[in-house]
Amino acid sequence: MPSKKSNTLEINMDRLWETLMVSASIGPGKTVGLSRLTLSDDDKEMRDQFIRWSQDARCTVTTDPVGNIFARREGTDPTLAPILVGSHLDTQIAGGKYDGILGVLSGLEVIRTLNDHGIETRRSIEAVCWTNEEGVRFQPPMMGAGAFAGIHPIDWVLAQTDKNGALFGEELQRIGYAGTADRKNKEIDAYFELHIEQGSILDAEGIHVGVVTGGFTSFGAQVVIKGEHAHSGPTPMKKRKDALVGAAVIIAKVNEIGWDYEPDGRTTCARIDVSPNEYGIIADHAEVTIDVRHPNAAKAAEMYQKALGLIPIAAKQANVDIEVLKEWSFGDVAFDPELIHLIRSTAVDLGISHQDILSAAGHDAYHLATIAPTAMIFTPCKDGITHNENEHIEPGYTMPGVNVLLNAVLQRANA
Amino acid sequence: MPSKKSNTLEINMDRLWETLMVSASIGPGKTVGLSRLTLSDDDKEMRDQFIRWSQDARCTVTTDPVGNIFARREGTDPTLAPILVGSHLDTQIAGGKYDGILGVLSGLEVIRTLNDHGIETRRSIEAVCWTNEEGVRFQPPMMGAGAFAGIHPIDWVLAQTDKNGALFGEELQRIGYAGTADRKNKEIDAYFELHIEQGSILDAEGIHVGVVTGGFTSFGAQVVIKGEHAHSGPTPMKKRKDALVGAAVIIAKVNEIGWDYEPDGRTTCARIDVSPNEYGIIADHAEVTIDVRHPNAAKAAEMYQKALGLIPIAAKQANVDIEVLKEWSFGDVAFDPELIHLIRSTAVDLGISHQDILSAAGHDAYHLATIAPTAMIFTPCKDGITHNENEHIEPGYTMPGVNVLLNAVLQRANA
């Protein structure tokens, strides 16, 4: 297929936007956003909708044992490894309407556009929805993509629990998305993921496309702090084993590590659970998540070691026991040079403004990059606000990126 | 009534213990203790039981607008101001079976013992249950006694909410304890409160009775920390407004104040609420309770000022706004010298080991002391463990204190 013809192919932005708005009505948040948690009823409703759209686009839909959904448009040579295009349909609590969702629905829009123009491709193209990218209800994040890439054993994923003790495997069964598709040993030619930037660089500079060259390296941990119940009045400081103080020391000092690595380093403790968490009773139990990120892998590892080094300090200060319950890491990837080049040159061909960019957030693409050539396209979001109901994009700012995706996928599929 | 006769009067410890064990079955905790929260169904069940027992003891029972219950045994001269003997029937979450409860049921046992012996008193005696001493479900603690003493306006008490938004006034109505007894302008001759020590001094030294001369001064506050939602990956440290970091700085530094005032000073943040409290999202909202105590009122005030002084420091460090939502104070009281002397001399007369002691915990007696001559008797509890399901007392260790209570009340009632 001549390059000129690819370059003139365009997505139907009205249709993509309408599709996004249907998604935006499933699992509403408190105000303008979404709270569509993994394996919730809302997640099921959105998955059902995605499958109906995929079937309308004449795709064959399969689901794997951790609930990842694949909507396949068969190529002219079905023996060739397919191209996957996707992201996730789950959101944060009080999150936005586009984070992840835009990537899945752009994959669908690529397929719909090829259908509109009756364009066949040599390789099959699959629009993919990965399960539990956000890691809100079940930790770690990017769980479905991690299982697909063989990083997390399937049984381990199914055995994870949310904070109310609900099992991932049972919830997956409950919403009817425990599938049987076996993707092991099946090659993938390339994985493309389009995503809103979740940062303010593109928006601030008025650039339409971020060519993602790699990610911040991220380390995460969940720690448990074990103290002892006692009355806050008569119990002298020396007799206390205060789990909340242990947690607070960790949270405050983890934050300081981020400041020591400004402006690139980031450290966050976003979640704490305390028991009994009541006035007058010294807490006997606390749990905290630690999240450490840096674009330089060695520095991220150094920061993470410093964070772990706080554990004995906090344990001594609060006279408590502290253990690491769970650890995870992602993002130490460089995306595929050939795909990066393809995205960049497609943007050039289409006359779309673009720049190289690093991703500070986690993405399913990180796990895919360990098993297949992978690349990402970022599109702007207003003021970089995300994981927030005020997350906002405009059709005019989004369309150029999806057109780059379409034409890059098309070229790769016929290469 | 001759002093010799009073001195030989004894409570029925088997009956008191049986009464305590009935209470110990209402509102069970996780293991061996109780979780009988204020205005819960369990609280209602216990109140109903207390009223049945009081009526069996031929008392007249009344309830005031905040749910305080008065079981009155009429004296021979009903025009004289009565003697009140009481404490509270609510408990902590996973609290003990005796904290507060022993004081109310000892008041009832005093009345029952006088009935057994057909002893009339000049002054009326009332066994009292004060509402919401613990302050677990509704803050501040000692709310019912505070309202009775005119420290909290009744309407203000009724308007307080628990963490799920339930109104104190509506919950009080729901369990049927919004009474109409008007105690305003009614004099009280004396208030006695017997309570387990909630510390280990008596237990460690094998002494049966603590003659409480006063309390630790306590200051409490609830602060709210206002930050901003953002993604933990792409948001640089300088752009963050992290409410959880603000809370952690307060918790860690409030704890340090306690250490600076060792061994008498105590500082605690026992409760934190964070929103959205999820992995990947910087918290936009947190609330923390601060609790500061010292036997010396001036030092307690100094410590509390230092705690409040942390607010701008934490606000700056986390780039957040912090406000004090609610403040309270109690314990800066010296009990009545005459009543203290009466308790001490009664213990001497009965040959019961005793020592003077200060209370580090809050008690309803603190509020009563502002309107009537007040004193407290402490009895031992094992290892000083309390606000804990393992709180433990023995009949043999408890009976001497209740006998001191009985004989002191009897002397006062006939004085």
Task: Chart the SSEs and their pairings.
The structure is a homodimer of 415-residue chains.
Chain A: H1 3-8, H2 13-23, H3 41-56, E1 60-63, E2 69-73, E3 83-88, H4 101-116, E4 125-130, H5 143-148, H6 154-158, H7 168-174, E5 190-196, H8 201-205, E6 209-215, E7 217-226, E8 230-231, H9 243-260, E9 266-268, E10 272-275, E11 281-282, E12 285-294, H10 297-318, E13 321-330, H11 337-350, E14 354-359, H12 364-368, E15 374-379, H13 395-414
Parallel strand pairs in A: 3-4, 3-5, 5-15, 6-14
Antiparallel strand pairs in A: 1-2, 2-4, 6-15, 7-12, 7-13, 8-11, 9-12, 10-12
Helix pairs in contact in A: 2-4, 4-13, 9-10, 11-13
Descriptive key words:
13 helices; 415 residues; 8-stranded mixed beta sheet; disordered N terminus; Alpha-Beta Plaits; Aminopeptidase; globular; 5-stranded antiparallel beta sheet; alpha/beta; 15 strands; homodimer
